[in-house]
């Protein structure tokens, strides 16, 4: 992935010139502009008007990214046999669920942080016994104490568990029949095909966590635009906007092939977590945009960009409507441009009506 970086809404000279040309082009049919604070006669009747409002403005930059899932891994075969059952891609397996079957024998997902490596039966002791017993107790099986000793009581609970999962009720745990992971797994792909004869340690499933994230990048020169915890918006292919938060910003710069035999500018990886309450669960993976705030002005006066006029001798103004429809051109200083509005300062007040040429 090589997302591009765009800066919509930058207050450049070109943007100002464009805004002025648009305003001038629309306003020429309405009034003949004079100097600052020059009154015009009744010209507002042929144009729309908008109030000068007090508001907060935010300028945004857009990063191209991709919606996917956090983390990835593989489930490996614990022994030999024919693969007789596979879950579908996208299926979520919770602890206690069957990951796949070999020779019609289930391989069950259990919660834990280390793999099974030996058979467990009465008389066996060790930390792996505790790990298995804790996982079994989490599934609701009782009658034993989760500790480092595999007793007859453990064996009885194991038999109940084996019957519930469709395995032979032996009371002993075959390491090939369980797979430990920190939590539920989402199947993202298959490493083997149904009917294939497996060898030990052969990849069977490709997996991810169930936590959706967006991965994007920011050029090193723009590192100050993003920070851990910053609020952002994720724009989906459907146009839906999902709130999110920056989870991490990498510290190791990378470069990519620029497609012309050279390398791109250095970039840093950025991970975004979409809001769980509104995340786009309709998409497993999708190209998206991440909008980050690059500048904010709070409690400022603003008007539509189209209300700006170009004044003789340079500079900008707005045409303020007064009593009787009279128009006064007032010089203003422009600030932040965002979302079709522009910040203004000058001899103007909140609530005044300004001409917006049609």
Automatic annotation (TrEMBL):
<keyword id="KW-0175">Coiled coil</keyword>
<dbReference type="GO" id="GO:0016787">
    <property type="term" value="F:hydrolase activity"/>
</dbReference>
<dbReference type="InterPro" id="IPR036366">
    <property type="entry name" value="PGBDSf"/>
</dbReference>
<feature type="domain" description="Peptidoglycan binding-like">
    <location>
        <begin position="126"/>
        <end position="176"/>
    </location>
</feature>
<feature type="signal peptide">
    <location>
        <begin position="1"/>
        <end position="34"/>
    </location>
</feature>
<keyword id="KW-0732">Signal</keyword>
<protein>
    <submittedName>
        <fullName>Peptidoglycan hydrolase-like protein with peptidoglycan-binding domain</fullName>
    </submittedName>
</protein>
<dbReference type="InterPro" id="IPR036365">
    <property type="entry name" value="PGBD-like_sf"/>
</dbReference>
<dbReference type="GO" id="GO:0030313">
    <property type="term" value="C:cell envelope"/>
</dbReference>
<dbReference type="Pfam" id="PF01471">
    <property type="entry name" value="PG_binding_1"/>
</dbReference>
<keyword id="KW-0378">Hydrolase</keyword>
<dbReference type="InterPro" id="IPR002477">
    <property type="entry name" value="Peptidoglycan-bd-like"/>
</dbReference>
<dbReference type="InterPro" id="IPR050465">
    <property type="entry name" value="UPF0194_transport"/>
</dbReference>
């Amino acid at each position: 992935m090589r997302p591009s970086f765009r800066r919509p809404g930058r207050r450049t000279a070109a943007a100002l010139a464009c805004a002025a040309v648009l305003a001038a082009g629309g306003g020429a049919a309405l009034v003949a502009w004079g100097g600052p604070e020059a009154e015009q006669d009744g010209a507002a009747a042929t144009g729309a008007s908008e109030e000068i409002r007090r508001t907060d403005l935010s300028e945004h930059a857009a990063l191209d990214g991709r919606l996917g899932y956090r983390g990835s891994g593989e489930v490996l075969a614990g022994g030999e046999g024919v693969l007789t059952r596979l879950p579908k891609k996208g299926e979520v397996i919770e602890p206690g669920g069957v990951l796949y079957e070999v020779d019609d024998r289930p391989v069950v997902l259990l919660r834990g942080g280390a793999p099974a490596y030996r058979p467990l039966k009465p008389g066996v002791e060790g930390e792996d016994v505790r790990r298995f017993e804790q996982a079994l107790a989490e599934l609701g099986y009782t009658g034993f104490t989760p500790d480092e000793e595999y007793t007859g009581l453990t064996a009885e609970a194991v038999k109940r568990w084996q019957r519930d999962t469709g395995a032979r009720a032996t009371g002993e745990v075959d390491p090939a029949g369980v797979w430990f992971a920190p939590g539920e797994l989402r199947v993202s792909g298959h490493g083997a095909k149904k009917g294939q004869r497996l060898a030990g340690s052969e990849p069977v499933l490709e997996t991810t966590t169930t936590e959706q994230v967006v991965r994007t990048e920011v050029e090193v020169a723009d590192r100050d635009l993003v920070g851990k915890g910053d609020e952002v918006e994720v724009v989906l292919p459907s146009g839906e906007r999902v709130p999110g938060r920056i989870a991490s910003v990498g510290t190791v710069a990378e470069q990519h092939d620029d497609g012309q035999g050279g390398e791109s500018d250095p970039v840093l990886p950025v991970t975004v977590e979409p809001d769980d309450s509104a995340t786009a669960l309709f998409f497993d993976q999708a190209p998206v945009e991440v909008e980050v705030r690059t500048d904010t002005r709070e409690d400022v006066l603003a008007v539509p960009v189209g209300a700006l006029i170009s004044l003789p001798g340079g500079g900008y103004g707005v045409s303020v409507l007064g009593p009787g429809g009279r128009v006064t051109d007032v010089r203003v200083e422009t600030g932040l441009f965002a979302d079709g509005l522009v910040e203004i300062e000058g001899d103007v007040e909140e609530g005044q009506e300004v001409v917006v040429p049609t």
